[in-house]
Amino acid sequence: MKRDQALVILKEYTKNESLLKHAYAVEAAMIAYAKKYGEDDELWSITGLLHDFDYEMFPDEHPIKGTEILKEKGVPENIRTAILGHADFSGIPRETKMAKVLFAVDELCGFITAVTLVRPSRALSEVKFKSVKKKLKNKKFAEKVNREEIIIGAEELGVDFPEHVEFVISAMSNAADALGLNP
């Protein structure tokens, strides 16, 4: 599978601009980590793009329904398994580095986006770990974001939390224009 094929699937099932931007943010983080670990960045890119592709159409069945659709479309098992693993309730363990990274960046990308959007400049380039840490403590801010999963994700990945946050911010900066976070 190639990235352009993944984009076709993503856009077939996802029309909401915010969900598309989330897919691009997670993709950017996945690519950066793939490069850091010497992994296949296209494979990781596709995984990032497709991890929530079914959420808009099947929110109550996500990601189970999505992985069934992906199987029908011939998407490789390692991608589908990583996608299942990013949802704790699926019961699928995160055994590969790719699956661990997907879990570690998913909620964090959403949270970093929220932190950026409340800044007067709405510029990702101005977001630092300190501001993310401060907002994490405010339970009312972006209250739907699972803070526990953000922490557990970094722990499972075995990375220092501040460094992980800064790494993901930097990765997302590579896609700031597509994310609408580079005014």
Notes on the protein architecture:
- 64% of the residues lie in helices and 0% in strands.
- The protein is mainly alpha-helical.
- The chain has one domain (3-177): Hypothetical protein af1432, CATH 1.10.3210.
- It is globular.
CATH architecture: Orthogonal Bundle
Report the uncertain regions. none
Instruction: Find the CATH topology.
Output: Hypothetical protein af1432
Largest sheet: none
Secondary structure category:
mainly alpha
Got a strand count? 0
Cα Rg: 15 Å
Calculate the mean pLDDT score and round it: 96
- Indicate the percent of residues in helices: 55-70%
Strand and helix order: HHHHHHHHHH
Shape: globular
Figure out the total of helices.
10
Roughly what fraction of the amino acids lie in strands? under 5%
Distance between the termini: 33 Å
CATH top level assignment: Mainly Alpha
Number of domains: 1
